[in-house]
Amino acid sequence: MSRGTLSSSGSLYVGDLHVDATESTLFEVFRDLGPIISIRVCRDSVARVSLGYAYVNFQNPIDAERAIETQNHTLVKGKPIRIMWSQRDPGIRKSGVGNVFVKNVDPTVTNQVLYDTFSACGNILSCKIVTDEETGVSKGYGFVHFENDEGSRKAVETLNGTVISGQKIFVGPFIKRSQRMSGLLTNFTNVYIKEMVDLDAEELKEKFSTFGEVTSACTKKEPRLERAFGFVNFAKHDDAVKAINELHGKFVEGLSTEGSSGLYVQRAMKRAERDQEIRRRFLAEKAKRQFPAANNLYVKNLEDTVGEAELRKMFESFGEITSSVIMKDHTAKQSKGFGFVCFKDAEMAQKALADMNGKLFGSKPLYVNVAQKKDARRSMLEMQYAQRRSMPPQAFMGAQTYYNPMYYAPMPQYYGKGGMPPYGGRGGKGMRGGGMPRPGYSRGGGVHPGSMKPKVHVQRQAAAEPAADTGSLTAETLAAMSPGEQKNALGEQLYHKIAKSHPDQVAKITGMLLEMDVSETLNLLESPQVLESKIQEALSVLNQLNSK
């Protein structure tokens, strides 16, 4: 075999590699052929899993040519490899020049047999039988890439119709998928028929022969649905189009099934093309139903008795509503306590958000916010946690609150003599000259919590100990508190509940949940199921960030 023009360098492409094949594996395959400059197995940038191909660079192009002649199609870890000259220009690789398509290939035909059959027509750069990725069984077709068009033309002229392993193969010029699809729309002759009565092939052929010459017809029956369908192939494209125009969607006596709206007669498509068309229709329909994100509101803390009509009535005063829905449990058919309201205009939605969020409806304050997808909520939670994780501890200290938004642990308040809070008195025990308190003492004589330096094991024990339950909180009692007091009260009860099931992560989880709205946090205390789902979501975020 002549090297042609592609052997100016000693770089080879090695394809169809086993996933476990490494650089050392390929070195053992090529080491005896000559000096090797480098070997690189291409891998996924994230998972670092082999992509199934590699590059081997020989010092001498003659050694590379010998590798193609002697090692091509040899088994490496039980899988035949495919070797060709490395072509870095993607334009040449994707042009299709010199490429032929071979189909109706017997399953026993291998890459080597295909290579030996076509090598008489010219210098072959690559040849491949397409196999199933899971089973490795031949799919009955393949490709042969010649160095130039002369070899491909000779192969089509001399080998088309040749019998290999008892089967007559088809050899034709390679046509890109995009060109094949456009050609199918203008030159198809095969039509697909469903919603038809159970007929045999001859009866179906007779029914459709009125539109033109029919070369073949077949009928099948879906056993699961007890439904008959068939295919009719016309000799001319115009006859197939005429049959579609005159029969599709119409009821034909003796051909249509009883009770159907009419026959379905359309161009026959392969499964891959049919799946692509179904997906295209689904995405188009989905795009019609989509609306701007700012128009859709998420409404929570709804009473179980609230229905969709009542939900719409609550918000209809703010503007035109395009849709409203209450989310329900599929098994119990009961309300989950939240729903969605979509307005026609974003301004209407913003007005409803401003007026309805926190408004008391029944016995619960409503929580209203712009609806977000689950992935967006998770990303936002991860970002917030990462920001707080990178901040110094001093950034979380507040003058009136004793909770840390990320590492929550209830802290006792220390009072001085006379029951005065820290820094509440003038002078007293522990005063230095100039009126500055000594470390470890407050101005009121009490011990200042920030100046204490307990041992590490004492600190961990105090943080892991759940706070005492301070009683049930209601919207009315929270409304009478300041924002800091609300966080403290909610934090103590959340800590107590979370510590029962997740004592190791209770501080972090509590701090994350306290970042939620007050009304939504109150709902967590009232609904154990919702609380557990939020805990699991917080744990998932923590695990992801800790693994990075």
Model description:
- The chain has 548 residues and is α+β, with helices and mostly antiparallel strands.
- Helices cover 36% and strands 22% of the residues.
- The chain has 18 helices and 22 strands.
- It has helices at residues 23-30, 61-71, 90-94, 111-118, 149-159, 177-187, 201-208, 237-247, 271-289, 308-315, 346-356, 374-390, 456-464, 475-479, 483-501, 506-513, 518-526, 528-547, and strands spanning 11-15, 36-43, 50-58, 75-76, 79-80, 82-85, 99-103, 124-131, 138-146, 163-164, 167-168, 170-173, 190-196, 214-222, 227-234, 264-267, 296-300, 321-328, 335-343, 360-361, 364-365, 367-370.
- It has a 4-stranded antiparallel beta sheet, with helices on one face. A 4-stranded antiparallel beta sheet has the order 8-9-7-12, covered by helices on one side.
- Helix 15 packs parallel to helix 17 (518-526) and helix 17 (518-526) packs across helix 18.
- The model is unreliable at 1-6 and 395-470 (pLDDT under 50).
